[in-house]
Every structure is written in structure tokens, then in C-alpha cells.
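INTERNAL AUDIT FORM
Audit reference: QA-55
Scope: verify that the stored structure record matches its stored sequence.
Auditor: D.O.
Record contents follow.
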Amino acid sequence: MPISAILSLFRVGQSLSSRPAVLLSAGLVIAYMVNIGWLHQVDIYHRHFFEHGILIAVYQLARLFFFFALAWLVYAVGVAVVAMFAGPAFLWRLPAFERYPLGFFVGSAIWHLVLYVLGFAGLYMWPVMAGMTVVVAALSIGHLARCVDAARSSRSKVRWPATLEDATAGTLVITLMAVAAAFIVIRGAFPLGGHDYYMHYFSYLTEVARSGSLQPNAAWYHFYDSKGVSLLFLSMILTDPTAPGPVTTMFAGFGVCLVYAILRHATGSRLLPLCGAILYVVFFAIGNDELEKQHVTTAVLTLAMLWTSIRLLDEQADRRPWIIALVAAVVTSILITVELGLLIVIYLAGLVAWFSWRREWRRALEPFCVASLAVFCVLGTLVLNYIYTGLPLQHMLLEAWPYADLNRLRDWGILYEVIALHYSFASFVLSLGHSSIFAPAHIWSWSFARALVEYFRLPLWWPLLVPVALFIPWRLWNRTARKSVSARYLWAILALFWFLICILAVAIMIGTAEETSFRRLMSLAYPVPLCLILLLWHFALHPLKQTSKAMHVVRVAAACATLVVLWPLASYSTARPEMTSAGLKMISANGWRFFSGLYSLKEAYQNQLGWEGKHPTGGIFSGVEEPWKIVGPNTPILAFHIHAYCMLPACNIVIPVTFRLGKQWRTAYAAGLETADRAAAQLRSDGLNYFFISMELPFFPSFQGLFSPTEIRTHLAVRWTDGKNYLLTWPGPDTTPIDDKFMAFYTKAMGVDLKTPCEQDIFTDLCAIFHHIERHAANLRPFALPWCKNCAGLPKVNE
């Protein structure tokens, strides 16, 4: 039966689809094959990075076509799975705004899991990825043809608006299409990013795509954070390194569908869901972190979890498709960001408690099983991490240190980096007066209250809440208004409100742990207040039977007028440049210039002002361009600056702690603690031969010894300089001695002048740790770090 359902769904035949639709579908599949072949052969990013003109314009269209095709490929796999359990008839009974997201999120889970396995098998290669997608595309021709026919049939039913509501709905649909198109041009297709993305996210992603494997690499802690973004890797392999932004835009597009579906299901209205969808798109880049990171993807996935749980609260008929979709959203979210497991389990536990309180035991079993699966996925991920690296998770470093497999960390070459991160976490916890990085927040402090406001994106949505709040008390007092509320509406309100409570609970429990990262993770809260506030609008303003038309119009007009007055204040409360006319004009112009081919990729990366928090140099610091040309592709350059961004093709800027400096564990210790001669020999043996220092960027003094002012002039020389930026390397025929201008700047920037930090009792703890590791390197066991608070019973570093 399941196989026959899939065959029925994907069969090509005249009785199921028209001949033109089949031919069009087959043509689209062929176009997809040509498209990925062209992107692979031309390779704009690596071969035409500095070019602009018609080639870049064609490249943009090819990228756009690919990501629409990718959305279809993900949906096609998911809809086949849904058909196995519910049959094709169920799918075709769903409206398009529910059928496509349902198939997409189920398919997303399958793609992520399959690609996850292939990544660990080292099969992230273009022939494998291209072959998989072409096979899926070919098998989906039949279903694509039926969807084409369905779209043509729906279009034929479109008529000139007969009522004011029809005209308003049509206007809103056109507006939604316009703002979505503008978003794709300005933000989705534009290669944007931020500090973290430019410094280490991008390096990890490109190294995985280049090596074809998910095995741990030099951007070490992203093995814990980013190895689950399978569709990003697929897209980067089939297109180029600019893929993360468009992939996230694809997920955001389905987020629009989810906002519309939640509001439509709860209210039955056409206009309110369209307003919600428009607001979601218009303010998306403001309420969220950079698209290139995984936070937005997990935000959409958790919204999918909310949507499917709302349907399960209300659905009395066939619940299997919604359970499958709930499982898919939960598993994919945890696969991408394992830390979300806590929030997901708390949310699902609430559903279990609700059904149990109502004595609906069978329905309570469903979220209980999904929550159990979520726990299994979290534990499985932690075990997998431990097997490969010796640590379950870098955020659990303080708690996991006594049980860490230091031999695996040694073989990976990151002992220095892990111990430095442990010290950083311990210092942070000590500054808060806690014993663990996961300690509860001070819930009565102003800082926590301000953080909650940011988590819930209230600086953005408060103007939308104030007008409707004026009418809520009166509606609650009105018995007729209370009785007019449907069960579907209540389920949606309860689910959304419970999710916000879950966010509050997690913020209280672990909100102090890396607060900046937690705030980014809370991108998942962006659409929830929007949906909740719009549902309150529906309750406050929808007409009752005894309400006169004139009074209804007056109330709606008053609310809208208040909103118009208050909304400009959001630009001040958010304080973001893209909400100003000057900022919007700048980002719109830059987006169009790149999309039309007036900008090259390099120019796009260097013209990013107008967006919040962007460095004046953009994603490419001009001083690194010539060093990049000199050292060659993928050659590491140790930078003494955290803003030495280099998005040039195969550029490999590394900074201490964030990156593993070398494959040998001794490299980082030697650079910081050994004598200059021994440090130089160790760096050379590990292939670290180039060092970048700029007088134009904030200085980040990392090491002494070899890099102390008294030794650097003896052991290093200038390979290239423009007078302000220096590329240093070992003395040779292509180098010149370090000049006095550099030494004056460098001595002042370093602030200290020591040859051997260990001999001078500088970094005493690190020196003792270094010597302890040297003595026990053959068979390391966890030992008591001098600052460790939970290392009682472990050997001390001097034993």
C-alpha cells in the first residue's frame, strides 16, 4: 500500500496530468541539470570573483533557479513520505499553503539525515550530490506535472474582485509578492555576513565543502555547532560558497507559509494572514541574525513544530501526517542545533501535560513519544561528538572536563584551544558568582528584563501590540465576544503563548550562558509574538453580530491610526540603520547593483554599510588582498587581528583559540610559551609560515616568545608591505628586514617584551599545564586545571 501510494503520487500519465504540464516538468528537470552543470564548470566564485557585467547577472538567475529547484527537491521527498502514510488523496485535500510546507519540512528532515551520514562517510562530492538531486528531480516529474496543472486551474479561477474584501486580498497578495522579490534581491541573493561568520563560520563551511567530509577540521568548535547544516553543504557543493544566504532565504520563504497557515487556520480570515505574511517578510532581516548562520533555519523549524502541534491539538481525523511533520521538525532542529533539545522537550512536555489533564491518554502519548525521540537525538549527538572528539559539547566543557578523552583532543591538535576555552568559561562563571555556565539567571535584575525584551523582539513588535491592547479589555468583558472564539483560535493562542513561556523558562535556566549566542539563538522567537499579536487583533476587532458596520469601521480605523503613529518609533527602539531612509536606500542600491551585475562578488562583499553591525571594510579587509595572492590558495595566515576579514576565494586567515593553529598539539603552546628558536621550528614543521599584522586594525596580541618585540625582528622578515599592513614570514631571498616603523608600532601594541614567558613566570598556569601534557602526552588523562572548581580527585598539574 505505501509503495502504491508513492507510485500513484509520482506516476506520469495522461489521465493524471496534461501533456503540456508533463513536457514543462521534464523541461524544468533538464534545465536543472544544465544549471548545476553550468554553475560547476564556470565556478564564478573561484574563477570570476573580480568580474562584473552580464556574466554576474546570468549567475544570479542561475542561483535563483537552483534554490527554487532545491525547494522542490526537498518538498518532493517529503511529500512522497507523507503519501506513504496518508495516501495521495490526503495531500490533494490540503490547500497549497499547507501541502507545500508539510512536504518541505518532512523532506528537509530526510535530506538532512541522509546527507549527515554521507558527510561522515566523506562523500560530500559534486558527482554524488548532483546525482542524488537529479534522480529525485527525474522521479518527481509526474507530481510536478500535477502541481503545474493545479496551479493553472487555480489561475483560471481568478476573477476581477467582486467585493472590497476581494480587492483588498488581491492588493495584499501583490504587496507580498513585491516585498518578497525585494527581499530576495536586497538580502537573500546578496553575500552578507557578520563578524563571526566572516571569521570562523565561513571557514568551517568551506572546509567541509572542499574536503567532502564532516570529520573535525581546523575551525574546531564548529564541529559541535555547525555540522548539521546538511542542506547548506549540499548547496555549497552544487553552487558556490555564497549558498548559505539563499538556502536560509528558502527556509524563510516557507516561514512565510507557516505564518499564513497558522493565522488562516486559527481565524478563517484571508486578510489577517496576508498582513502577517507581509510583516514577517518586511521585518525579517531586522528581527533575526545573519541569514548565513543556522539560527534562522532553526527558527523556521521550531515554527514548523508549533504549526504541526497546533494542528495536532485541533485535528480529529488522520493525525499521522502531522505527527510525521512534528517529528521531522524536531529531529532537524536538534540535528542542526543540539542545544535546542531542552526548549523542544519542555514545549512537548507541556502538550503531554495538557492532554493528560484532559484524560486524552492516546493523544498524550504522541507528544510523549516525540519528546522521547528528541531526548534520544540529543543524547545520540552528544555520544557521537564524544566518539569523534573526546568532548560531548564545547558548551559543556566545564562539566565534561573530568570525563574528557584528552588523547582524542591531543590527536586532533586542539588541547591548547580547549584549555583556553575552559579558562574563558571558568572566568565568566566566576564573574557572575556562579558555579556553572548553565546557572540560573538573576530574574529580578534589569539586565535580565532587558534581555527578555530582546529575546521576544518586543522593540520591533510593540507598536503592533499597543493599538490592539486598547480594545482587548472590552472584548474580554463582552460575553458575546468570548463565545465567538473558536476552538481552533484557542489552540493557536495556547500553543503560541506556551512556547513563549518555554523560552522564558530556558532563558531563566541557561540564559546567562554566552548571552550573545543565546540572543542569536532566540531568533526563533521572532514570528511567535507576531502571530500572537495578530491573533489578538482578530479577537479585538473582528465584527460581532450586534456590532454595527459603522462602529466596526471606527474601531479598525482607530487601531490603524494608532499603529501608523507609533510604528515610526520602532525605528528608534530598534536603533538599526536599515530602518532609516538612508540605510534602506543604501542597502537597496547595493542589492540591485549586485543582482544586475554592476557589482562583482568582491565589490558586494566590500559594500555592506547600511546593515546593522557591519564593519566599514565589509567582508574583505583591503590589506589582506595582496598577501592572499602571495601565499596561494588555502595556505594558512596567522592574523593578529580579529577583523582581518578575508572572503576572497580559498583565503585562509586563522586566529588563535578560534582555530586550531596546526595539526600538532604542541604548535599553539610552542608559539606562546617556548623559546623563539623552538617555536619557529614547531610552526614550520606544522606548515604555519605566514603572519599578518596591520596598523589599521585593532591589535590582538596572542603570543610571546617568538613574537615578542625582541625576537620577532631576528626570526621573521617582511614578505610584503604597503607601509601599514605587513605579511611576515621566515627570512629568505624574497624578504626584507623588518623596518623601524613596524617595530615602533609593534612594541607599543604588544605592551610587553619577554623572551620566554615560562622562565619569567608569566602565564604560570599555562606553563605548568604545558609541561604536564609533555610529561604525559603518550597517555593523557583528565587533570586538575588550576582554576577548575569540579576537578577534585583529579591529578594536579605538578604531579
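Auditor finding: record pair retrieved intact. The chain is about 65% helix and 5% strand.
Action required: none
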